[in-house]
């Protein structure tokens, strides 16, 4: 099997991870490291054994595909030129800065018969993978994603930086049309929102409540999913999941609390999660999600099949993120004539004293 000749474009935090994993992947031949910074590209090239170049145009005739990990604002231009040159592309999330740009890339990839994959890496997280196919008729989802401020990705806010991972995961699970969005956010470190909360309402009645923060003193990456027959806690950080399934008698409405004796009540109190709400810890194989993302990318190209997170899926997550940002922008923190609105709750304007 001939490895996929690939260039990694961008040597920031994620670009370096992509480069290191691609260099070790048997299905990828890492041809080049691309970055405008000579020091950065040379450093990563030395670590991986790949060639260092300032522009991807220098290696277009030497590669079959590219992994794009540039700042988001450059995604559209870089990916468009790669697709126009006939190259398959794995681009980090978000796919682009606007839905209109994403639509252009999706159409270009389709018309040229190329794979366009978006780096929503949580789809490859073992914690989600091990439970996703067990969840049907989902009614409610609660997700939280929090980190400290990394001083990276400051060109976008927390919605595009972190929450979009959970948006993509929710869309992959619910598979229903979004009908309403309510959200608010707070800017702490700069112009963009650093804390956001969004409630998504779907046509099938499902509701998803998502919270994201990149100024948290404790990290968190989890999602709780309630279906009509199961509860699942997905631990993205621990890459595992816990499920709770009601006993068939509960689902059928045949369990009558009023008829329990004192001894039965005491027994079920001690054995609730063994007898009535049956708890199971799922410990999947601990694979590297980005390495699995690379494998899916390379194999989809060789086999002519769809990737797990297509350009269309990346576009869908971006469209929801745009709706979240629009709702944040509309939020008023004060009654007129005070003017705090959008994500700009801080610093607070002086408030008039009562009386």
From TrEMBL:
Recorded hits in InterPro entries, A to Z, give: Gfo/Idh/MocA-like_OxRdtase_N, Gfo/Idh/MocA_Oxidoreductases, GFO_IDH_MocA-like_dom, NAD(P)-bd_dom_sf
Question: Where in the numbering of this chain does the GFO/IDH/MocA-like oxidoreductase domain appear?
Answer: 152-226
EC number(s) stated in the UniProt entry for this protein: 1.1.1.312
Q: Does the keyword Oxidoreductase apply?
A: yes
Which residue numbers delimit the Gfo/Idh/MocA-like oxidoreductase N-terminal domain? Answer: 4-120
Keyword Magnesium in the entry? The reply is: no
Source organism, top-level taxon: Bacteria
Q: Which UniProt keywords are present, listed alphabetically?
A: Oxidoreductase
Question: One GO molecular function term?
Answer: 4-carboxy-2-hydroxymuconate semialdehyde hemiacetal dehydrogenase activity
Membrane spanning stretches? none
The protein's name in its UniProt record: Dehydrogenase
Source organism per entry reads: Aeoliella mucimassa
């Amino acid at each position: 099997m001939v490895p996929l000749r690939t260039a990694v474009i961008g040597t920031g935090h994620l670009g370096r991870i992509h480069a290191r994993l691609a260099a070790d992947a048997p299905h990828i031949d890492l041809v080049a490291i691309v970055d405008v910074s000579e020091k950065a590209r040379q450093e990563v090239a030395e670590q991986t054994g790949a060639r260092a170049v300032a522009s991807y145009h220098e290696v277009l005739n030497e590669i079959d595909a590219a992994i794009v990990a540039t700042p988001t604002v450059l995604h559209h231009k870089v990916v468009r030129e790669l697709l126009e040159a006939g190259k398959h592309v794995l681009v980090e999330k978000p796919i682009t800065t606007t839905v209109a740009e994403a639509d252009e890339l999706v159409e270009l990839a389709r018309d040229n018969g190329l794979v366009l994959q978006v780096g929503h890496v949580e789809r490859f997280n073992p914690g989600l993978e091990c439970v996703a196919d067990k969840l049907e008729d989902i009614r409610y989802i609660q997700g939280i994603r929090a980190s400290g401020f990394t001083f990276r990705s400051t060109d976008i806010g927390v919605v595009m930086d972190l929450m979009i991972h959970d948006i993509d995961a929710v869309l992959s699970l619910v598979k229903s049309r979004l009908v309403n969005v309510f959200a608010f956010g707070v800017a702490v470190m700069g112009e963009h929102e650093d804390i956001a909360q969004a409630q998504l309402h779907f046509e099938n009645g499902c509701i998803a409540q998502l919270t994201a923060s990149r100024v948290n003193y404790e990290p968190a990456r989890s999602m709780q999913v309630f279906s009509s027959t199961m509860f699942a806690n997905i631990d993205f950080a621990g890459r595992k999941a816990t499920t709770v399934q009601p006993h068939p008698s509960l689902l059928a409405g045949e369990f009558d609390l009023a008829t329990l004796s004192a001894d039965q009540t005491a027994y079920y109190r001690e054995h609730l999660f063994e007898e009535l709400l049956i708890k199971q810890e799922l410990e999947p194989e601990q694979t590297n999600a980005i390495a699995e993302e690379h494998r899916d990318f390379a194999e989809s190209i060789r086999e002519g099949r769809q990737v797990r997170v297509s350009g269309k899926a990346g576009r869908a997550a971006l469209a929801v993120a745009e709706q979240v940002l629009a709702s944040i922008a509309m939020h008023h923190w004060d009654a007129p004539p005070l003017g705090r609105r959008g994500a700009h709750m801080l610093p607070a304007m002086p408030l008039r004293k009562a009386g």
